[in-house]
Amino acid sequence: MSQMSDKFVIGLVQMRSTKDRADNLSRASEKIREAAKRGAQIVCMDELFLGEYFCRKEDAALFDLAEALPGPATEALAKVARESKVAIVASLFERRAAGLYHNTCAVIDADGAFLGKYRKMHIPDDPLYYEKFYFTPGDLGFPTFDTRCGRIGVQICWDQWYPEGSRAVALGGAQVIFYPTSIGWHPAEKKEFGAAQLDAWRTIQRGHAIANGVYVAVVNRVGFEGGAGAGDPGLEFWGNSFVADPFGQVVAEASNDKEEILVVECDPAKSEDTRRNWPFLRDRRVDAYEPILSRWLGK
């Protein structure tokens, strides 16, 4: 697919999620339809939008939330895709086999066809983000997906802090990289560190746009989840979903506390122009990068 292909429009759905899977799916479907009516041709949801962010604790019973992929959720979303003629990027909890689970994004084209999936490669293990308990690291590499209107790549939440994954997806020809996310403030840390954490999160992803000359589309959930009474101080998900152009300029951004839909036009010609004037891909020293394949270069 040529990088000089036609313009296309993306949509990001920033929403709250509850423990009610059916309600979350219904509301997400309506928001996808709304984004399509506003012109979106590819719509992305936040990370694990079918429920609350359950990784705040380690509980083996929560593996019951997982499902096959493709499966019931992708079938329901494929119907929405066909009806609204919109491609969908959906972050889901994948049950691959008994005892084997992934944090996975399904990509569904505008005709409802299942284009494939990306399994989250980098798995965090931090207070209230106990993902290593639930998720096996991805083994599908860094694929790209040719939708009807453009080639896209996907990175999921913790992946967004690593330049290697975004670079690999860009080298695969992605015209836009989607970053479905569930990130928020620990209530006790927000006052002291909150602004800096949000700034770092925004900056690293704008950096991926600049370094690779691609659009980045970051969609985060909103709302507070948890409760101190259950020994869980909870997380305040900070929203701030945004789209940055190939030079890292933020062209649309949502609030930190409201459900919103961002709809943004992407013009592949902007990537072409940016890469011609800032030719980072031309000047890469691919012959000299072997050291980054090592865990550490010291003793």
Question: Please, could you describe this protein's structure?
Answer:
The protein is 25% helix and 28% strand. It is an alpha/beta fold and 299 residues long. The protein has a single domain (8-293), classed as Nitrilase/N-carbamoyl-D-aminoacid amidohydrolase (4-Layer Sandwich), CATH 3.60.110.10. Strands 5-4-3-2-1-15 form a six-stranded mixed sheet. Helix 1 (21-37) links the parallel strand 1 and strand 2. It is globular and about 55 Å long. The model has no long low-confidence stretch (mean pLDDT 96).
Q: Which CATH top level class fits?
A: Alpha Beta
Q: What portion of residues is helical?
A: 25-40%
Strand order of the largest sheet: 5-4-3-2-1-15
Beta-strand percent range: 25-35%
Category from helices, strands and their pairing: alpha/beta
Question: What is the secondary structure topology, with strand pairs?
Answer:
Elements: E1 8-14, H1 21-37, E2 42-45, H2 72-84, E3 87-97, E4 100-108, E5 114-119, E6 144-146, E7 151-154, H3 163-171, E8 176-181, E9 184-185, H4 187-212, E10 215-220, E11 222-227, E12 232-238, E13 242-244, E14 250-253, E15 260-266, H5 268-277
Parallel strand pairs: 1-2, 2-3, 7-8, 8-10
Antiparallel strand pairs: 1-15, 3-4, 4-5, 6-7, 9-12, 10-13, 11-12, 13-14
Helix pairs in contact: 1-2
